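Re: export button greyed out
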Amino acid sequence: MPNAKVTFLPHDVSIEVPPGTTIIQAALDAGVHINASCGGEGVCGKCRVRIEAGEPVGGVSERLGADDLRKGYRLACRTEAAGDLLVRVPVESVVDAGILNRPASRRRTARIRDFNLGELKEKGLFLAPVEKKCLQLPAPTAQDNLPDLSRLIGQLRREHDEHRLEADLAVIRKIPGILRESGFQVTTTLVRPVRADGRTRIINVQPGDATGRSYAIAMDIGTTTVYGQVIDLVSGAVLAEHAEFNGQISYGEDVITRIVYAERPGGLERIQETLVETINTILARIIRASGVDPQDVATITLAGNTTMTQLLLKVEPRYIRRAPYVPASSLYPPLKACELGMALEEHVTALVYPVVSSYVGGDIVAGVMGSGIYRSEELTLFLDVGTNAEIVIGNRDWLACAACSAGPAFEGGGLQFGMRAAPGAIEDFSLNPATLEPMIATIGRERPKGICGSGLINMVACMFEMGVIDNRGKFDPGLETERLRRTDGVLEFVLAWENETQIERDITLSEIDIENLIRAKGAIYSGCMTLLAEVGMEIQQIERIVLAGGFGSFVDLDKAMTIGLLPEIDPAKVTYLGNGSLLGARMSSLTNRIRRDVTEVIRKMTNFELSETPSYMDNYIAALFLPHTDLNLFPKLQARLAANRRLRGRSENSGAPQ
Amino acid sequence: MPNAKVTFLPHDVSIEVPPGTTIIQAALDAGVHINASCGGEGVCGKCRVRIEAGEPVGGVSERLGADDLRKGYRLACRTEAAGDLLVRVPVESVVDAGILNRPASRRRTARIRDFNLGELKEKGLFLAPVEKKCLQLPAPTAQDNLPDLSRLIGQLRREHDEHRLEADLAVIRKIPGILRESGFQVTTTLVRPVRADGRTRIINVQPGDATGRSYAIAMDIGTTTVYGQVIDLVSGAVLAEHAEFNGQISYGEDVITRIVYAERPGGLERIQETLVETINTILARIIRASGVDPQDVATITLAGNTTMTQLLLKVEPRYIRRAPYVPASSLYPPLKACELGMALEEHVTALVYPVVSSYVGGDIVAGVMGSGIYRSEELTLFLDVGTNAEIVIGNRDWLACAACSAGPAFEGGGLQFGMRAAPGAIEDFSLNPATLEPMIATIGRERPKGICGSGLINMVACMFEMGVIDNRGKFDPGLETERLRRTDGVLEFVLAWENETQIERDITLSEIDIENLIRAKGAIYSGCMTLLAEVGMEIQQIERIVLAGGFGSFVDLDKAMTIGLLPEIDPAKVTYLGNGSLLGARMSSLTNRIRRDVTEVIRKMTNFELSETPSYMDNYIAALFLPHTDLNLFPKLQARLAANRRLRGRSENSGAPQ
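Workaround output, generated via the alternate export path:
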């Protein structure tokens, strides 16, 4: 279906949206304000708009009289654009023509970056990791009674020009039976060496012709969540995927508590088994869902942070959490998945992503591989933001990385009304600059329950641009709105009144909440500054940004730059990887080129311990402002703020009604 | 102590023997006949000799009167030569001066071939398989917090110029703890690649300086007996060795019954565990005896026949015993010893000797490696004789091999009075050509209990040369001796009378026993003929013989050539390896050169299934004679037989008294 074009009047701003988008969402994306408090549930009735052309879907409400409906009024939060619409925003939302001239700040999220096998092949990045060859062997006779494996290898040489082969004991154990039950027609699974000087391994033998059925598993081992995918190695398609909470959560939420648990007698074994149970739950689910025969699975590639990696491999993690924070190893050899306890066939090889340091783990390395930053000429900032933020800056020539503790603000933690990005979370926000009435949109179009990370960024950016808060994140105490109030000595802004929420309390944003966000974004921004300074560069030189992690997909890039979370670049140059760790694991499953490159990348990645880098604290303190002490780092924002000041000046002079 | 020279009169034959050798043994070795029936126990009293010079030790007996003793008479079987002796053999033993001129057939056994590390090095065959390097690592700091393994590998590179290293997961698991408990001084065990394009594996890390303590285990997995050695990789010395019966004997004596057992449900697992129990018993014993720290053991190299190899590795053996006799594999990858159930440290690699065919196994390949035949220019016959005989013929350019069933005759089986080479077994034998009185010597100088393999060969050879039996192995029915008699229609020769034995029955050699021996030696000789014919050569071209197996060391080479078991060559060109399988395993433990060469050797070894080679049956039938239908193949014997005939003629003409 073609996109629907939604045009807002009197602003005369248009936006193309996918059919089914609500008018309120279209307005948010177009930078058009419509008062709205209930998150899209249709109960507040504030978001009345009039449809002047086109066929709206829904939006009828008891909040609208028959007369209103006849005139074309609808509730913006409940009305979907199936086709093009012309929407007039009524005066109670649009109070000041001057405001209309505000440069529209359209909501722009990062382009999602994915890949397919064809793309890998086009870019010359494809080196088959697994190939299957079907053979019809001559049956042995008294004159020709070579050992079974020699017969097989000989035929692979003659028929398929295969050389430098070796076979695992497990394969040798299977060969005699399978050859004879299949009339000597078998399919061998060949795993190619990563290095040119390596040998091809025969890892499996199956009766009959099983070519064309070749699969791999990719997994991201997160501290909180484990994701798994079944990948078709022939088409590159993801056949099934599933996520489960990491069962280790019962030993503690973060990596430190997990390590502490693992230090107990028997703890490492127990916590490893718990993780493997989670993995096995996912494996069972995705293998069943994809319908693949486990015999056809060749490899499982796993990426996780350093602690998850060591816990998975049962490697003593105690020195990860103790200064000077030393992991056991960067690279791990290929392993038998079954030896780690995974419910996969004996022949399946487990490939574990290498790590750089205690806090720049295999998940980040996988993200770097998935992002292609190590092949790019452009200076790129790779950012994976969760409780910890991992930063990689560099290009094809060099890579610098660091981790910093961002705190939980981006995941909606540490705020009074913070929550994860779940139904009821305020994720989009704008404010009527004159009335300070908010427009909020929630995930799942429910009445609001709280604020998620991306919502928080949007709010703070919006308030800062409007002058509701200053560059230290403090509210303008002179604002004339009942929404601003002081509770227990702290100024807070009421986003939704008690009766508009699901939690039967006012949902507010306080100066303490804003301070948390500023600390979090300050840690990340100063991390970038510090890394760049260490390599003698400046943050303005960044040409590309790659976001990874659950956080990146919903963030309004302009807003993130407004608060100084991201350096100011063209939003078109920002891409979003999604789960970079899983993406990297998938790419490694599909081509040996990635596995070959990764050892080079690891060598190139220089780790900086920010806490040990003297300039970091200075940079951090300078970053504890919106967007930064040095506004020259954000020239576009600087221009917008100046324009806003001029508009506000005019608007005040015009004496617009409240 | 210098050898003692024993001179026999009236023969005027001298022989040098180690001090402590009995006169009867010296006589046997010198080819001098002395009547003797009791095997050396001194009870028959027949072996009276007179010491005419020198100081005899022992030999005094109630069978000799005071007068006899004064005159210097002693029992030859109880008298030891401590120094030089002049011994007169009395007339009842030496009946005919003509006989004295018989060319003395001294007992010559094969030279024992062993090697030491120095020899390997001199020959350019030394490529260190294992090396230990001690390192003092700088402790990590905040500025230098590389992963532990990277730190270790970096130091190995800087300090020891080590490159292309990889580490097992088990090593990574140990490193963090060991580095910190040892103040960052550690010793790494490096296992060198066999192929030049391979990588060095770090298999172990130990605290402090453990260089100079580097050991390996070599094992021969025999169907009946398992032998193990602890080898010092620095000096090459064998520090301890021990043998145990293979516990699988309880499932059957031979490989076929073992395979049958393994075909039962759960049988393979059970029979594998039984073998590993035997191995572990030996390991415990030799490790304790040698006093080595199990952490210092790097590898275990195992050689066994094809069935033992597959049972050890839990590889389905059923097709070994079914035509067309196909083993699962020739080469096996290096394995973790502990994964096979062996009670060795986790890092110990198990290296299993490759096999050629179902009946030419790793024991033979190990023997070939130990013998050096694959490096020799001379055309060599390698023979390992047990119940099965394995034959390898060739040189540095080609190797042909085959196995044939010799039956148990060489191990003393299948004869009416056959027994293993154990105390009481007749192992040496001669016959007075005039009186047909025997001279017998038994193992342990006990009264005879039976006949072992080497004794049987000596008997048959002796009787054949004297014309007691003809070239079909049939007794001359006209012989005038009460020792020759017919029992149940079969002619037999009484070797020892009832009252001279331990078994209280006459010990005899029958025509059926002789026929068994002829079949056995015929199978082997015709195997050699057939192999040579297949490569277009003739048996006279053989320049060297290498014997392996328990059998070879005691065989009188001239006798073995007389009966046509071995082709006729200079006995000085025959060497004896002892346990060739164990020797090859030891050599592989000491140098990678042998491990590299073995894969080449395996490729060169062409296997022939004798049962499928049409000429084999013809050759076999031609070999069912003493020594062969074609006496021209044995020119020296031919000359001796002619001389004997002349002597016999003279002796008959001289009318010598009975």
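DSSP finds 17 helices and 31 strands in chain B. The button fix ships in the next patch.
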